[in-house]
Amino acid sequence: MMKKVISLVLALTFILTLAGCTKENKGRIKYNLKMDKFVTLGEYEGIKIDTKGEEYTTIYSQFMNSDIQSFDFYKKVTEGKLKKGDVANINYVGKLNGKEFDGGSADNQELELGSNTFIPGFEEGLIGAEIGKTVDLDVTFPKDYGNTELAGKAVVFTVKVNHVVIYDKTTEGTLKNGDTVNIDFTGKLDGKEFDGGSAKGYNLTLGSGQFIEGFEEKLVGVKIGETVDLNLKFPTNYTAELAGKDVVFTVKVNYTTAKRALTPEEYYEELDYENVEEYYDSLKERTFNNIIMTKVLADAKVKKYPKVEKKSAIAQGKKAFETNLKQYYGESVTLEYYLTANNMTDEDFEKQVITNYAEPMMQEEMTFYAIFDDAGLTFDKDELVKKTKEVVASYKSDKVTEKTLKEQNGESYFEYIYIQEKVLDYLIDKAKIS
Q1: Please, are residues 89 and 108 in contact by the beta-carbon 8 Å criterion?
Q2: pLDDT per residue as tens digits for the range 277-286
Q3: Which of 207, 104, 98, 94 is nearest to 158 (CA)?
Q4: If 259 and its partner were Cys, which of 74, 113, 292, 419 is the partner (CB 3.0–4.6 Å)?
Q5: Hey, is 234 helix, strand or coil?
């Protein structure tokens, strides 16, 4: 994984064939032009950064949250025995008469023991099981189970208990989409409770689509601790007794739950940092870079795009798009096939590439190269070689080489990383940080 901050660098750069190298930038691949003819820069020195201000703290928190979410860093229990109330992360395989059946298997399924989410006997059978071990559960599907092939049948579930997830509870505030909320609910049809319409301590993620239309949507904005009545209608393709019927669910919102995130002190090694101080320095650097990059790009205005470079950028954009098509849909799906299927001409597609890919990418590149030249920074081949080796090594894979990265991202991939980092270091040094 890449420890140093190159996340701001473009995912794909362009192979540009340029002529007329200036004396100052001899050996540079890209934009050996008088950049002031193409870009008007704003004031890039002395950018103000308030480390106590809302902009800084918001971006800083976003980077930290992204780190946690990207690697699923949350508190886990990996030893001991399961007990009622634990949220167990499990893999399981169900077999009927020795053969796996449809819908009976899953990996990394989270299950709160005692929530009655699974068929009777499943959760009860896991209580007391050793975390990290595999157990076989002999259970029988209820006779009134919806799938007639399984109703009343005895099955065996082989369950691997991966770990227990630690959740924090929140008892104040209002519900929002994406929250996992613990609720008690009672469903009534014509004023009477109906079978399967009630539960206590049920965990529901709002927006997951587990319940009928309107149930989850109407809970958004409800205060935690409140009880509300939801007036809903069952879908017409529901069970015969309830299809198309009006129903009222009385729902009590008990609390919301969220995985307990690890602190940076607990997870910095997973991100490949030597110590937590180095990780905090990285967060600060990424935040500075983000604020500065946003400012200089917003202030820079492109007068015109160099023709040769723009042509190369468009070609690279088309190539990247087709590569992505084949990765998602297979080698048989070509760009030509995509255009035909979407009733799009080559001209229409090229306009999209220019608007959404080529010009935005070029604007960023041209801005950094223009600042590099305007600030009088020096292009050093030895520094570029060092940076190239650092980037390749950061991937920690024998399959990733300088050659493969250039093939994927363009001949100037490492040069742009070098140019951008050198400019950002210069701008941070000149910034007014308080």
Answers
A1: yes
A2: 999 999 999 9
A3: 94
A4: 74
A5: coil
Model confidence over 278-323: pLDDT tens digits?
Answer: 999 999 999 999 999 999 999 999 999 998 889 888 888 888 888 8
CB atoms within 10 A of CB 419: 26
* C-alpha to C-alpha distance for 111 and 127, rounded to whole angstroms: 12
What's the CA gap between 14 and 412, in Å, rounded?
Answer: 7
**0.85 exceeded by pTM:** no
Phi, psi of 300 (to 5 degrees): -80, 140
CATH of 168-259, one of 3.10.50.40, 3.40.47.10, 3.40.50.720, 3.40.190.150: 3.10.50.40
Residue pair 206/216 in contact by the 8 Å Cβ criterion: yes
Half-sphere exposure of 275 (CA within 13 A, CB side): 1
Check the CA dihedral 419-420-425-429 and report its sign: positive
- Structural domain boundaries in the chain: 35-71+264-433, 76-165, 168-259
Give dist(CA 157, CA 155) in Å, integer.
7
Residue type, 423: V
**Which residues lie closer than 8 Å to 255 by C-beta, 6 or more apart?**
169, 170, 171, 181, 182, 224
pLDDT attached to residue 25: 55
Strands 99-112, 227-233: pairing kind: unpaired
Whole-number CA gyration radius for the chain: 29
DSSP assignment string, 137-188: EEEE--TT-S-TTTTT-EEEEEEEEEEEE-EEEE-SSB--TT-EEEEEEEEE
CATH of 35-71+264-433, one of 1.10.3120, 1.10.3470, 1.10.10, 3.90.1170: 1.10.3120
